[in-house]
Amino acid sequence: MSNDTLLKLEHVSKRFPGVQALHHVSLDVRRGEVHAVIGENGAGKSTLMRILAGAEIPDEGHIIFEGQEVRFRSPLDAQRAGVGIVYQELSVFPNLSVAENIFSNRQPARFGSFLDLNKLREEAVRLMQIFALDFSPDVYVRDLDMADRQMVEILRAVSLQPKLLVLDEPTSSLTLAEAERLFGLVERLREEGISVLYVSHQLREVLRLGDRISVLRDGTYVGTLTREEASEQQLVHMMVGRAVDLYKDYGVHAQQPEVVLSVRGLAGAGAFEDITFDLHKGEILGFSGLVGSGRTDLAKTIFGMYPAEQGYMTLDGAPYAPKTPRQAIAAGCAYMPEDRKTVGLFLKMLIKDNIIAPQLYRFSHHGLVSDRGARALAEEYITKVGIVARGPQQVAMTLSGGNQQKLLLAMWLAPSPKVLIVDEPTRGIDVGAKVDIHDVLRHLADQGMSIMLISSELPEILTMSDRIAVMREGHLAGIVPAQSATEESIMALASGAAQGEVSHV
After folding, report:
1. Domain boundary pick from 197, 219, 240
2. pLDDT confidence of 411, banded at 50, 70, 90?
């Protein structure tokens, strides 16, 4: 093994009951490199990371770390050898300070048993300065945004002085601006000589950060490319085993004259004001903008989650002023939230229970739920949105991330809304599921459903939308035809570098 190689995996296999999660996977990680690992849900990425972290033991194969064969039988074994991991689900303590989180269970002590607060703070400041973090070590983690919480988690792993740091889907819950801060931290880790194994669904991320990119498919190793060798299309082909058009050209769709949702002078949530637009029958109206522009607050106000402070709306020509989501659903509006795990799905419940949740009253009689009706509806929407599952009785949390996202979409399609608001509908899911959801949304629009699409992903906005509404600092900066828009023109409107005309119709 070359002195340049920190980690080498040789023919690593792992089987769970009924599933071959990994089959003879071999790859290596060099010292001081960011090595990205990509693959669809079910490709074996998480299993591989858990083996490296000592949370799983491989059935076959060899792990060679710093030239020596190792066998991690626990996370402590991996940690002692120099492997740190930051999982997708953060484990910070919200009610402790940043410094206390970084050194949790390892706080410096005086006289054997007294906490040395000065040394704790000094050590935290030293680490934070290395990575140019600008928040206080004394602030409670609950008061930080998601990106800074992620960085605290990473610093906790870095404080153990790892030689290899594994980051599992680190941007899945971050906005674009938050992700940028994380990228800066990863680049600093590389400069400090720490090897990073970076697991992500986001191809643009891995092409930006990864010195090399390895692809897994169905538990097997497909290949490794350098950043210079790789392209999005090539990586997609390696991930799914066939050519996939990630951002299809769905063609130009003539605008129908019928207005389904009309919004005039709307203000609310202290986050936006004077918003005016029309959403036409069968239209996908994309909403773009930087973090804090007010897009999600607008969506929640339209859905009755937040009260409107000014303005008025009509839905199908009738006055529309929902005070609760239930009133919005009854009027024909549905909202698919951006975070499926915390506010979207009931993960411990069955697929059928999730699908009927927004309209439970339809299936409940004298407090008893009609199981036959719930199962029939679930089976219908499992087919409609292409959920890969054993059936309506499967527990939601046992689905892959992409299929959970499809379930969330099915949950809000089942009430047959006239207006469907989808907030970041493909965040954190693999390529195949993203294409499937795009196809479903475009089909729904072609069938006459009116869709508000909120996305931070500009290629998604440009591909899926008929028109694009750009928000900036709580105001509507402009509405432009998607056909003539570019990433540059959208960003210019979103940042204030250009002025746009608002065409309500």
Report:
1. 240
2. very high
DSSP one-letter code for 341: I
In this structure, the answer to whether residues 312 and 220 fall within a common structural domain is: no
Say whether both 211 and 258 belong to one domain.
no
**pLDDT of 203:** 85
**Mean of the per-residue pLDDT values of the chain:** 88
Order of strands, edge to edge, in the sheet holding 212-217?
83-86, 164-168, 195-199, 34-38, 212-217, 220-226
Residue 246 has pLDDT above 70, yes or no: no
Q: Are residues 136 and 104 in the same domain?
A: yes
- State mean pLDDT over 12-22: 89
Residues 25 and 154 in one domain: yes
Please give the Cα distance from 47 to 178 (Å, whole number): 27
Kindly write down the DSSP assignment for every residue of 146-182, as one continuous string: HHHHHHHHHHHHHTT--SEEEEESTTTT--HHHHHHH
Burial class of residue 243, CB neighbours in 10 A (0-12, 13-18, 19+):
exposed
Using CA atoms, how far apart are residues 183 and 207, in angstroms rounded to an integer?
A: 12
Based on the fold, state whether residues 177 and 320 are members of the same structural domain: no
CATH classification of the domain holding 108: 3.40.50.300
Helix (H, G, I), strand (E, B) or coil at 501: coil
Q: Secondary structure of the chain: what % helix, strand, coil (to 5)?
A: 35, 30, 35
Which of 240, 262, 283 marks a domain boundary? 240
Cα 36–Cα 207–Cα 58 angle in degrees, nearest 5 = 15
Contact 189, 32 (CB under 8 A): no
Confidence of residue 156 (pLDDT cuts 50, 70, 90): confident
Letter string b/e over residues 346-361, b meaning 16 or more CB atoms within 10 A of that residue's CB: ebeebbbbbbbbbbee
Between the CA atoms of 348, 352, 354 and 356, what dihedral angle is there, to the nearest 10 degrees?
A: -150
Decide if pLDDT at 355 tops 90: yes
Alpha-carbon gap, residue 321 to 314, rounded angstroms:
8
* 98 vs 363 pLDDT, higher one: 98
- What SS3 state is found at 274? strand
| Prediction pTM value | 0.72
Inform me whether the pLDDT recorded for 365 exceeds 80. Answer: no
Confidence of residue 352 (pLDDT cuts 50, 70, 90): very high
Tokens 């000014």 -> residue: 310
33 and 163 belong to one structural domain: yes
Contact 90, 149 (CB under 8 A): yes
Q: Could you tell me if residue 61 is left (phi over 0), alpha (psi between -120 and 50 degrees) or otherwise beta?
A: left
Q: How far apart are CA 83 and CA 141, in angstroms?
A: 24
Phi, psi of 13, deg, nearest 5: -130, 150
- CB neighbourhood size of 236 (10 A): 22
How many CB atoms sit inside 10 A of residue 112's CB?
Answer: 5
Domain that holds residue 197: 5-240
